[in-house]
Amino acid sequence: MAASDSTILGVVILTRHGDRAGFYQDPITYTASSTVITPLGAQQEFQLGQHLRSLYLNATSPSFITGVNDTLVDQTQIHVRADAGGELGVIYDSAVALLQGLFPADTNYTTDLANGTVVTGALGGYQYVPIESVEPANDVSLEGWTSCGAFDASTTAFYNSSAFAQKRNESAAFLSQLPPFLDGRPVTLENMWNIYDFMNVQSIHNEAFSKALPPTFLAQALTLASWHEYGVFTSPQLDGIGNIAGRTILPQILSELASIANASDPLKLAYQSLAYKPFFSLFNMTGAAEQNPLLTGVVPYAAAMALEVRQPLAGGEPVVRLNFKNGTGEEFVTYNFLGASDDVPLSTLVNHVNPALINSTAAWCTVCSNTQDRGCGALALAASKASGGHHQPIGPVGAGFLGAGLTLAVVLAMLAVLAFLGMLTVGRGRAKKAGSTHSRVIFPLVP
Ligand SMILES: *[C@@H]1O[C@H](CO)[C@@H](O)[C@H](O)[C@H]1NC(C)=O
Ligand SMILES: *[C@@H]1O[C@H](CO)[C@@H](O)[C@H](O)[C@H]1NC(C)=O
Ligand SMILES: *[C@@H]1O[C@H](CO)[C@@H](O)[C@H](O)[C@H]1NC(C)=O
Fold first, then answer.
1. DSSP states of 312-343 as a string?
2. 362-402: per-residue pLDDT in tens?
3. Dist. CA 271–CA 67, nearest whole Å
4. Measured from the CB, is residue 300 less than 6 Å from ligand 3?
5. In angstroms, what is the span from residue 277 Cα to ligand 2's centroid?
């Protein structure tokens, strides 16, 4: 446990969505079917929001964030993004529910009208926090792994590895007992995520299933699914393709940590609502899983990572503390990472992951060898038009830019192309809010 004396400047919160209905993911491409959050899931996220409030927005808490407005939402202090990808509304709705717990209705949320009337917000002063809906079709940051041929190839290689063959042998006896519980689903180790997810959803929502399932089966399936997913969503190399979920989300996280550490930036609380996948890469890339092997598992519904930015009282640069809450009914626990036994200087974290970051859509297109999906087609078209010297107007570029830390060369190249086309609308992620926040238009993934 890290324990140095410090004051907290702010926090970056990453959560997994709450309880949801059934869900299917292609075992190779991880293209997902749609699903919905359940009332239980909404409760889990709401309670998580209340818990976060009790830690960070409560003046009597030791982790109360100095200077934060704990009653009325100050939109310059909070920045929220939600993955609008394969699980469709589940992750976005989780963010809505969490925020309702984080910033409850307040009767001081009022406005004085010219005619002397005082009006309180709806629902007793309920406050609305803007949520940036992150669409995979135009922003790769929260779902780096879809439509990525290199990732699919890496997953296939994992399935063909000797470690996988060995695990297949070890698990064969267990898997052979599962068909009666799987309603015809393929019982293969490759399909382990879908097997576990089906069993988990049924165990929670189907009384007959729950009674029929032998008591150890769900935990055994979780152990296998965790092994499977850790193998898919991590890599022995920091910049390996298996870590793509972490490599695409980290630029945003580092940018938020830096904003919080910067006294002249008002940001205090950044929150990203996610699927389970980025957690594997983040625990792997930060070395947290190496020091704490329990962090190699599938994180439960409504699990939360809180990266606190702290100022040591002894002086020196801001440090980062990694706290993780392992789902409902658990407390936050501080985990060591990057080989340290205490909070880690922010610059140490940045320097460690920097070589592996995928900072822009263009960089992602290169890493994934994609020239058509998720903005890559528009980038390729723009580049070819620019070099060909044609001046026809072209359609809206779907190429979203990641908010932070763009590689200089890429920035300059892209600025040149876009300026040439009169389409220069690049901004920091947070400045982008005005355009893409508040909406929850959901684009299907380009196949
Ligand atoms: C003042 O304006 C509000 C909003 O238009 C209206 O609902 C209210 O009835 C007005 N009050 C008076 C006293 O005119
Ligand atoms: C990351 O995961 C890979 C397995 O994909 C493992 O070989 C490697 O040791 C892990 N790295 C760390 C730092 O835990
Ligand atoms: C979180 O809980 C799961 C059971 O739901 C368990 O398998 C896992 O080891 C726990 N992880 C940590 C970090 O405690």
1. ETT-SS-EEEEEEE-STT--EEEE--TT-SS-
2. 998 999 989 888 889 888 888 888 776 554 433 333 334 34
3. 18
4. yes
5. 15
Residue 243 CA to ligand 2 center (angstroms) comes to: 10
pLDDT single digits (tens) 317-331:
999 999 999 999 999
Structure tokens at 268: 């205090």
Q: Give the angle subtended at the CA of 348 by the CAs of 346 and 349, to the nearest 5°.
A: 65
Closest CA to 233 of 248, 220, 222: 248
Q: What percent of the chain has pLDDT over 90?
A: 74
Q: CATH homologous superfamily of domain 3-145+236-353?
A: Phosphoglycerate mutase-like (3.40.50.1240)
- Closest ligand 3 atom, CA of 226? 7
Which of 305, 326, 335, 337 should be mutated for ligand 3, with most atoms under 8 A from CB? 326
CA distances from 414 to 358, 371, 394, 417 (A): 15, 16, 16, 5
Which of 22, 18, 16 is closest to 196 using CA atoms?
22
Ligand 3 centroid to Cα of residue 49, in Å, is: 20
Residue from 237, 30, 35, 228 nearest 136 by CA:
30
- Confidence (pTM): 0.86
CA of 90 to the centre of ligand 3 (A): 22
Work out the average pLDDT over 161-181.
97
Q: Which residue ranges make up each domain of the chain?
A: 3-145+236-353, 165-232, 359-447
Answer whether 236 contacts ligand 2 (Cβ < 6 A).
yes
The secondary structure of 152-193 as a DSSP string is HHHHHHHHTSHHHHHHHHHHHHHHTT-GGGTTT----STTHH
Give ∠ CA 308-314-320 in degrees, rounded to 5.
20
Find tokens 């006294």 and name the residue.
263
Could you tell me if the CB of 333 is within 6 A of ligand 3? no
Q: Number of C-alpha atoms within 13 angstroms, CB side, residue 139? A: 23
Range of lowest pLDDT (87-91, 273-277, 284-288, 299-303): 87-91
Q: Which ligand is nearest to the CA of 112?
A: 1
Instruction: Report how far ligand 1's centroid is from the alpha carbon of 107 (Å).
Output: 19
Residue 119 β-bridge partners: 111
pLDDT tens digit string along 113-122?
Answer: 999 999 999 9
Rounded Cα distance between 259 and 269, Å, is 10
The two beta strands, 6-16 and 269-274, are parallel
Query: Which among 294, 324, 336 is the best mutation to test ligand 3's pocket, defined by most ligand atoms within 8 Å of the CB?
Result: 294
Band the pLDDT of 262: cuts 50, 70, 90: very high
